Amino acid sequence: MATREVSHIEAGRGPTLQAAQSVALVVGIGICLTLSLAFAVGALQRSKGPPAIRSGERINPNEAPVASLMRLPQVGVTRARAIVAHRGLAGAQAGRQPAFQTADDLQQIKGIGPAIVEDVRPWLQFDDASDEANKPAQR
């Protein structure tokens, strides 16, 4: 039976190779975790929604698309779509008259009550050029 002699070089290579592989594994896992964290942070920053409304900017709920309406406080995609849908139905029924003439008219939308109307009132603009459309209704 022939036995193979292990040279001094081959004998030392086994533990060194294992150590190098272990270091490479740890480094690879570290890189993967770092990239995962970076992608997660990026996704969270993108999901914060549309940019906030700038000072002095106003949105006309009779004309604004869903993306613009979503910039209003407490108006997410569902409420914005409901505003656009209501606007389409009201416009078809009333002819050329705008669906929303005052901020209080937004209360016709399910899920929009007086508190939300008060939050969005400063950011709204209506076809009526006067500022009266944004004043609270007298009771």
Concise description?
This protein has 139 residues and is mainly alpha-helical. The chain contains 4 helices and no strands.
Question: Would you give an account of this structure?
Answer:
This protein has 139 residues and is mainly alpha-helical. The chain has two domains: 14-48; 66-134, DNA polymerase, domain 1. Helices cover 49% and strands 0% of the residues. It is built from four helices and no strands. The chain has helices at residues 8-46, 66-69, 77-94, 114-120. It is rod-shaped, with a radius of gyration of 31 Å. It starts with 7 loop residues before the first helix and ends in a 19-residue tail after the last helix. The model has no long low-confidence stretch (mean pLDDT 81).
Question: How many β-strand stretches?
Answer: 0
Q: In oligomeric terms, what are we looking at?
A: single chain
Helix run count: 4
The first-level CATH class of the largest domain is given as Mainly Alpha
CATH topology of the largest domain: DNA polymerase, domain 1
Q: Ranges with pLDDT <50 over ≥5 residues?
A: none
Indicate how many domains the architecture comprises.
2
Helix and strand run: HHHH
The structural class is mainly alpha
What CATH architecture label of the largest domain applies?
Orthogonal Bundle
**Strand percent estimate:** under 5%
**Rg on CA atoms, Å:** 31 Å
Taking the sheet with the most strands, its summary is: none
Bulk shape: rod-shaped
Topology:
Blueprint: H1 8-46, H2 66-69, H3 77-94, H4 114-120
Notable traits:
about 140 residues, DNA polymerase, domain 1, 2 domains, mainly alpha, about 50% helix
